[in-house]
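subagent[fold] <- orchestrator: predict structure for attached chain, return tokens only, no commentary.
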Amino acid sequence: MKRVLVPPRNNWQKSLEDLGFSFHSIGGIYWNEGVCYEFESKEIDRIEAITEDMNNMCLNAVEHVIKNDLFHRLRINKEWAQFIKKSWERKDLTIYGRFDFSYDGKSEPKLLEYNADTPTALYESSVIQWFWLQDVFPKYDQFNSIHEKLEDVFLKLKNKMGIFDKLYFTCVEHHKEDFVTTEYMRDVASQKGIATKQIYINDIGFSKETSRFYDLDEEEIKYLFKLYPWEWIVSDEFGDMVLNETVNFFEPAWKMILSNKGIMAIMWEMYPEHPNLLPCYFESSKIKDNYVRKPLLSREGANIKIFGKNISSEETGGSYGKEGYVYQELKELPCFDGNYPVIGSWMVDGQPAGIGIREDLTMITKDTSRFVPHYFI
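subagent[fold] -> orchestrator:
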């Protein structure tokens, strides 16, 4: 694994915009055109194998939480715990998720966290970096079957839906990145023959008379892909109405267990000393030296704080933390020319599907961290 400087493509901004990638320069630089990461095929094979292992361990952890009624450790109340349990027992379909690893190509990859509910950087991982590869390194390969596996999972979903049912795609209005991601997913679903419709989360209505959710045309919403965290739904005014179970959600309710960072502490209890996990606890007193405090629920690196001896303390802002924290042993990210990359390894339809890399000048990956493409030889 190494970081490589490459000449930027001519008029690359227009090329990206032609593909619908409109937020390539958000925060100044988001898509880092003149840089990439090179891997050897054995390194990619290792990431793929570890990703599959982590997914199997996560599924075991969900079963463990449900079987032993550990929802209180994740700050999930009894009503929602029952809702989650039913979702798991039904084997509700999962579409995607993203594992974040610290990896330098030499030592064992270490799982930092699992973005199981609303992972971002999907479109750039699936489509944008693939077109970059064709333009810049057409003779090389890329760990990237995300698009093909998305097609497969939406075809699977189509076979579960009624012939007249629609799949709705929602996110918060005026959030460009989330909108592009949901529109990409909607396009893939449409290509597989699913009737789709876009709706912003604030435009979804609820009828007390029927106890069902509707769009602006008063059509019932039965299937909903949401780029909107489950914890926000739980706290919303009409969140409890979801407990009526009239909507099929993607990601499903059982993903609430895995999108909660408390699962990292539970997994460490289940798999102590596992070479690809970091020690993680619900109590800071159990870690003696350097560690990272993470809220049980947060997005885009919000409210993360690094503690330790002989290291610079770092902290990000945000509105999370009241739900509690976990304390994870600090695994310093590898540094390439002053940049700290995180490997985002995608799961689609329960299978490893490819990677996307985010890097920053600090060890905390944030919403402004740059996306960097990759290839392998």
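orchestrator: received. Logging for downstream: The chain has a mean pLDDT of 95. The chain has nine helices and 19 strands.
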